[in-house]
Amino acid sequence: MKEIDPHIQAIIKWRESFATLPDTHFFELVRMYLGEVHTPYNKPKLIEELGAFLRREEHRRTLVSLLSESDVQLICAVHFIQNATIEKVAAFFAGEYSFAAVYERLLNLEERLILYRHSDAKGENTVISVNPMLDDVLSPYLQESVLLSEPVPAELNQSMAAGLSPELLAAYISFLSATSDVCKADGSFKKRTAATLEGIFPGKVEMLHCVTAGFINLSILKDDESGFVLDYSKLESFARLDEISQYSLLCVASQGRFSRSGLTRQAQLLLDVASGIGRAGYTRTELLRSAFLISEKDNDIPGVAPIGQTGRFASMIARSREKNGMGGSFSAVDAVSAMDRLIDSALLLGLLAEKGKDEKGESIFVQGSVLESSPAPANGPYPKVLNIDAGFTVTLLPGLPLKALLPLMHFLDIQQFDTAAQFEITKKSVMRAFDSGLSRQTILDTLKEFCPYKVPQNLCVSLEDWHNSYASVALYKGYVLQVNKENAAAIERNPAIARHIALTLAAGIYLLDVENDAQAKDLIEESSVDFIGTIKSAAKTVESAGFPPVHFSRKAASGQGLGMGPEGEAESLSPQAEIPPLSSEDTRASHFDAMRADLEKLNLLPEQKDGLLDRIRRKIILSPEQLRADSVRLERVMAGGMDFSGKVHIIESAISSSSMVELEYENPNEPDGEGVIVVGNPLSVEKMENDALIRIELIPQHEEKLFSIGKARMVKRIRGSVLR
């Protein structure tokens, strides 16, 4: 069977949706463009006539010429936001337009036949789309750059702070290896720690606090009886990631603990937003809008649920929001919230940088140094970056990835961090390495790998002395099995015991890897050997679950608003071509003047003239043929001041026509200025002795509340509804 062209399918959907509008709204729209409808009527024929009206070239030219900048912004938002609803569009423009303003603008665009409403694929929610009849004339304007405009800088920063680097992370790991008592109970640095860090890492204490929070929430840094200690198994797994994955995960984890999928999703969102920042940069608003659009785009990570939609409880919340008409806005709004949290940490870590300020004094952000610099080689052979002097001072130059630097941090103590970091090898630092399981030969081999010349002989001698000293005494804690000399061979052949022998301390004395009495009891029962417990034990290695990788495309540096494709490559949300210029204010004004002049020539009642003048103002009148007296239904949509009965009438008519209402109340903070606006679905009017109350379902909160009708300084019925 031959497939129908997608454009034809979209037009069929538009016609079907138009046909299913409530009769009140359907005939109101038809009268605006075709005049009075006479019975008997045929809905499909009327829709076909409306389509013919839109196909006329002069009408299409006029419709495009009347588009304003805000019109195009709203049309683009509907186009790029997946399954756009009023809540999603209002959330996208939060801070710029109020919900009431967005609602009314969308309704106006629907009246102008540019947008239309229909059921989503599941038939559960009403969504808004761009009219496919206008695809060819509107497509040049449907570009993401309309929504993510480039700022105009008013001042530029002379320099931007350096971000994280493998050397900085390694140096801080060296510090944490030697110092466990670093944080207070609330996670902030102790005063002594902060002062020490400022001396070693000048100007980087705030960044290191962010790294510390990330390490704690990634379980790389764990709290025990002696303070915070590094889990090297986790750390090695973390170090195997590429640099940008490391930094993005740290950035997210610095804000709290998240599930594996939540961590990955937010880190990927951060990188996707950063990859789309052009050379001109984005303000905070553009960063958040970019996060909104990316979260709405179908760029799911395999095996990872969307932000805010992980787990049974979150799924219940999502279903609840859908039931209340919120649709899929949960993910987008949550993504914006996540991005808003991450910006400051991303600045500290170098994923983002502040380029300067725009004309409004808002910060302009660009990609940070860690995204623009070339990463260290992931695999060997590695460059020779170590220099060791006779006093065991080690100078480390840049060039190694974190996974290559980690073995060095077992036995190097950081002294001063700069472009070239200064470390020391001391008896204490080497003893720490021996404690972690490194041998003298391993330390020497590690140094030889990264030194361009031989290790100093006096260091080799000192390592030998320190190893002999370390090996002369050993202290263990745990469970020891002791048997006599005659039974030792049998014990070593006993499969139940042999696999649990961690260390043979002496003939017939074995350190077991059991961790508690229950395990020891099970072992004894299985082997039938008497048990003796002491205060010595052996550590047991625990394999780390590892960290998920995320992807960043350097190809996107000069692009704008890019998401990530399935292979981690940059993928534009829309092709970025030159946007045709909009008509000037004078051009639009000349159209309005011409229509008003044609209207003045007609012999109409004042109410009819007012109705048509309102349509001209709302850009519904595209040609003089629409200036028909019979197309105007005289009705009152607004009442205010002392007109109590008029306000009640407006609300009651809104209830009967399933329309929304807008109530305006005096703002106590601005008695002579803009009032407080309430928008929602009116449910009922409750009469009182000296007043009447309106029970209203507030939009977008979906909460029912009572408001005084008498105290409202203005009551307005909003024509139709894009929500139903």
Write structural notes for this entry:
It is a single chain. By secondary structure, the protein is α+β, with helices and mostly antiparallel strands. It is 43% helix and 15% strand. It is built from 28 helices and 22 strands. A six-stranded antiparallel β-sheet has the order 17-22-18-19-20-21. It has a four-stranded antiparallel β-sheet with strand order 8-9-11-10, covered by helices on one side. Helix 6 crosses helix 7, helix 11 crosses helix 13 (243-253) and helix 15 (284-296) crosses helix 17. The two termini are 35 Å apart. Residues 298-330, 530-542 and 555-575 have low confidence and may be disordered.
Short overview:
The chain is 43% helix and 15% strand. The protein has 724 residues and is of the alpha+beta class. A hairpin with a 2-residue loop joins β13 (501-506) and β14 (509-512).
Distance between the termini: 35 Å
Q: What's the arrangement of strands in the largest beta sheet?
A: 17-22-18-19-20-21
Number of strands: 22
**Low-pLDDT windows of residues:** 298-330, 530-542, 555-575
Write down the overall mean pLDDT: 83
What share of residues is helical?
40-55%
Count of DSSP H/I helices: 28
Overall shape: elongated
**Structural class, judged by helices and strands?**
alpha+beta
- Determine Rg (CA atoms, Å): 35 Å
What fraction of residues sit in β-strands? 5-15%
| Major β-sheet profile | 6 strands, antiparallel
